[in-house]
Specification:
Helix 4 crosses helix 5. The chain is about 25% helix and about 35% strand. The longest helix is centred in the first third of the chain and has 64 residues. The protein is an alpha/beta fold and about 600 residues long. The radius of gyration is 39 Å and the shape is elongated. The chain has a 20-stranded parallel sheet that branches. The protein has a 6-stranded mixed sheet with strand order 15-14-9-6-31-29, with no helix packed on it.
Length: about 600
C-alpha cells in the first residue's frame, strides 16, 4: 500500500483543539435560556389574554345585569305609579274633576321631590363586596298639558330616569309615560270592547280597536225587503292602526277561501284589504280604560250639585223615579225647575191670560236660554219653533264648581225634519229616557242617554238618529253616550251624492250595526260599542231593485266613510265621562 499524500494530512496541534472546545462551551445554555424566555413570554401573553378575557366577560356580565336592573327599576316604578294613581282615582268618587286632577298633580310632585327614596328596586344579585345590587329612580320630570280651565281633564308626561350599578358598571335609562283620565273609547274612529267585524269596503281614517276578535271580510251583508243579501266589495281601506289582542285574533275572510289569521300571513301573502304589519299593534284589553254609563250619569248629576253631593241618595232617587223632586227640593238655589204649560191663547188680554202668557214665556226662556243647571220632568221636544233649541253661553256651558247640566227626567226629542234652519244645541245634557234626533241640528254638546234597551227586542233603541244632519256648532261636535242601542238611519236611501258627515261621536253599552250599502254613511268623529260592532259597506252607486239592491261597483264612490276628530278632548272636556282607572301609555326606553 502506498503512503498517503502529504496534502491530505491535516496536522492538528493539541493546544488549538483545546482552545476551540473551550470557545464553544455555554452556547447550549444560552439557547436553552432563550427558549425558556420565549416560552415565558408566550405563557404570560396567554395568561394575560385569559385574565383580560375573564375581566371583559365579567364586565360585560355586569353591564348586562346593570342594564336589566335599570329596566326592571323602570317597570316596577311605572307599576307603582299606576297602582298609586288608581288608588287615588278609586277614592275620588266624591271629588270633582278639578279636585281629582289636583290629587294626581300632588302625587306626581311628591315623586319629583323625593322619588329616588321611594322607588328603589333590589335584587338577589350579590356584588363582589357582598352587597345586594340596587336600582333606583334618580330623576322624575312631570309636564302637565291640557286646557287651562279648571275642572277639565288634563294629561301628564312623566319622564323617569333609572340608574343601576353592578360591581362598578353603571347604566342609566329613561322612559316617558303619558298619564290621563280620558276613557279609551274616545281615542278610536271605530271600536268594540268585544268583536269588531268589518264587512266590505269602508274607508276609515284613524285607529280601530277590538277587545276580542277583529274580522276583516270582503263581503257586505244586508237586508232588503226582509230578505238577507250579500255583495263582494273591495278594497277595505284603513288609514291608521288596528289595535288588537293578538295576531291570531285578527281574522281575514275572502269569498271562496278559508279564513286565515294574521299570525299565518307573511309579507308576500296576497290579500286585498290586508292591514300592513307595521300598522297592527297589540293592546291588551286588561289595560283598556272603560266607562260605566250609569256611574258617569250619577257623577254628572253630582257635578251639577257641587260640594256636598250625596251620590248614594242621587242613585236611590234616580232608580225610584224621584230625581227631579229630590233635586228640586234639596237644591232649589242650584237648579231652575221650569214647568212648561200649554201655550196660552195670545188673544186673551185678561189679567189671567196675560199671567199665563208671562209664565209660558218665562218657562220657554229658562228651557231655551238657561243660565244655570236645569231639571225638567217629562218628555221635552225641541221643534225649532216654540222650543227653538238649548243655548247656554260658552262660559256657562263649561262652568265649574258647580257645573251646569241640563237634566231631563224623560225623553229628549229633537225634531227639525223638513226645516232649512238648524236647531242649535249648546249644552251638556242628561236624559233618563230616550234620545231622538231628526233634521238639521248644530251641536256643541255632550249627551248621556240612560235608558237601557230591552233584551227581548233587537229593535228597541235608546238613541235614534234618523235622517239627521248633525253639524258642529262653531266647529264643535256632539258626543252621545247611550246605555242602550243606537240606530243611525237615512230615510232617503239610494242617493249617490255623498252627504255632509255627521260631526259626532257615538258610544253604546250594547251591540251596534252600521251600514253603507243602500244609503251613504259619513261620520266625522267615531263610533264605539261595548258589545259587538259590525260594519257593512260597499263602493259604487246603489239603486232600488225588485228583489235586491242594484249595486254598480265604483271605487271612487265610498258609501261608508269614518274620519277621526282629534279635537273632541278639547271641545267637550266639560262633559266627558270620568273613568275608574287612569290611562297609562308607555313610550320607548332610551339609553342615556
Amino acid at each position: 500500500m502506498s503512503e498517503p499524500s502529504q496534502r491530505h494530512i491535516i496536522n492538528i496541534r493539541p493546544g488549538a483543539a483545546a482552545r476551540r472546545f473551550r470557545e464553544e462551551q455555554g452556547s447550549a445554555l444560552v439557547l436553552v435560556m432563550f427558549i425558556v424566555l420565549l416560552l415565558t413570554i408566550l405563557g404570560l401573553s396567554v395568561l394575560s389574554a385569559a385574565v383580560g378575557g375573564a375581566q371583559r366577560t365579567e364586565t360585560r356580565k355586569n353591564d348586562v345585569q346593570s342594564l336589566h336592573l335599570a329596566e326592571k327599576t323602570l317597570d316596577e316604578a311605572i307599576a307603582y305609579i299606576t297602582a298609586s294613581l288608581n288608588k287615588e282615582v278609586g277614592k275620588s268618587v266624591d271629588l270633582s274633576q278639578n279636585e281629582l286632577d289636583d290629587k294626581i298633580a300632588s302625587f306626581l310632585q311628591s315623586l319629583q321631590a323625593g322619588g329616588s327614596n321611594g322607588l328603589l328596586v333590589s335584587t338577589d344579585l350579590l356584588q363582589t363586596e357582598g352587597v345586594t345590587a340596587v336600582g333606583k329612580i334618580v330623576k322624575v320630570n312631570s309636564v302637565k298639558s291640557g286646557p287651562a280651565q279648571a275642572g277639565q281633564s288634563v294629561s301628564y308626561r312623566l319622564t323617569l330616569t333609572a340608574e343601576a350599578d353592578v360591581n362598578g358598571v353603571t347604566r342609566t335609562l329613561s322612559q316617558t309615560v303619558v298619564i290621563d283620565t280620558f276613557p279609551d273609547f274616545l281615542k278610536y274612529t271605530l271600536g268594540s270592547e268585544n268583536n269588531l267585524t268589518i264587512n266590505g269596503s269602508p274607508y276609515i281614517q284613524g285607529n280601530i280597536y277590538a277587545g276580542n276578535t277583529l274580522t276583516i271580510s270582503d263581503t257586505a251583508l244586508y237586508k232588503y225587503k226582509t230578505r238577507d243579501h250579500s255583495f263582494v266589495s273591495k278594497p277595505f281601506e284603513l288609514s291608521g292602526e288596528a289595535h288588537i289582542q293578538s295576531l291570531n285574533k285578527l281574522v281575514y275572510q275572502e269569498q271562496g277561501k278559508q279564513p286565515v289569521t294574521a299570525d299565518k300571513l307573511t309579507s308576500s301573502t296576497s290579500m286585498t284589504g290586508k292591514i300592513p304589519q307595521q300598522d297592527v299593534k297589540i293592546k291588551s284589553h286588561r289595560s283598556f280604560v272603560e266607562v260605566n254609563v250609569e256611574y258617569s250619569f250619577i257623577d254628572k248629576i253630582a257635578e251639577a250639585v257641587g260640594a256636598g253631593a250625596d251620590r248614594k241618595k242621587i242613585s236611590e232617587n234616580l232608580a225610584s223615579g224621584n230625581l227631579v223632586n229630590y233635586l228640586g227640593t234639596n237644591y232649589q238655589s242650584i237648579f231652575d225647575h221650569p214647568v212648561l204649560p200649554s201655550k196660552p191663547d195670545p188673544t186673551d188680554t185678561s189679567e189671567q191670560g196675560k199671567k199665563n202668557l208671562t209664565d209660558y214665556n218665562t218657562a220657554v226662556q229658562q228651557l231655551t236660554q238657561p243660565s244655570k243647571s236645569v231639571i225638567y220632568k217629562g218628555n221635552l221636544t225641541l221643534d225649532g219653533t216654540e222650543l227653538s233649541g238649548i243655548n247656554y253661553t260658552q262660559s256657562a256651558k263649561n262652568s265649574t264648581s258647580p257645573r251646569n247640566w241640563y237634566i231631563i227626567d224623560g225623553d229628549l226629542i229633537i225634531n227639525n225634519y223638513g226645516n232649512a234652519t238648524p236647531i242649535q244645541v249648546r249644552a251638556n245634557i242628561l236624559v233618563t229616557g230616550k234620545v231622538e234626533i231628526r233634521g238639521k241640528v248644530d251641536f256643541d254638546s255632550t249627551i248621556f242617554a240612560l235608558r237601557a234597551s230591552s233584551l227581548d227586542s233587537a229593535e228597541d233603541y235608546t238613541t235614534i238618529v234618523e235622517d239627521a244632519s248633525i253639524k258642529g256648532l262653531n266647529n264643535k261636535e256632539l258626543v252621545l253616550i247611550s246605555q242602550g242601542r243606537i240606530l243611525i238611519n237615512r230615510l232617503a236611501a239610494f242617493t249617490n251624492n255623498e252627504p255632509a258627515p255627521l260631526d259626532a261621536f257615538f258610544y253604546t253599552d250594547s251591540d251596534a250595526k252600521l251600514y253603507g250599502v243602500g244609503s251613504i254613511f259619513s261620520l266625522s268623529g267615531g263610533f264605539f260599542a261595548k258589545g259587538d260592532l259590525t260594519i257593512n259597506a260597499v263602493r259604487g252607486s246603489a239603486s232600488e231593485g225588485t228583489g235586491d239592491i242594484t249595486i254598480t261597483a265604483n271605487n271612487s264612490l265610498t258609501r261608508f266613510k269614518a274620519t277621526y276628530n282629534d279635537q273632541i278632548f278639547n271641545d267637550q272636556q266639560a262633559g266627558l265621562p270620568r273613568v275608574n282607572t287612569v290611562n297609562i301609555r308607555v313610550e320607548g326606553v332610551k339609553l342615556d
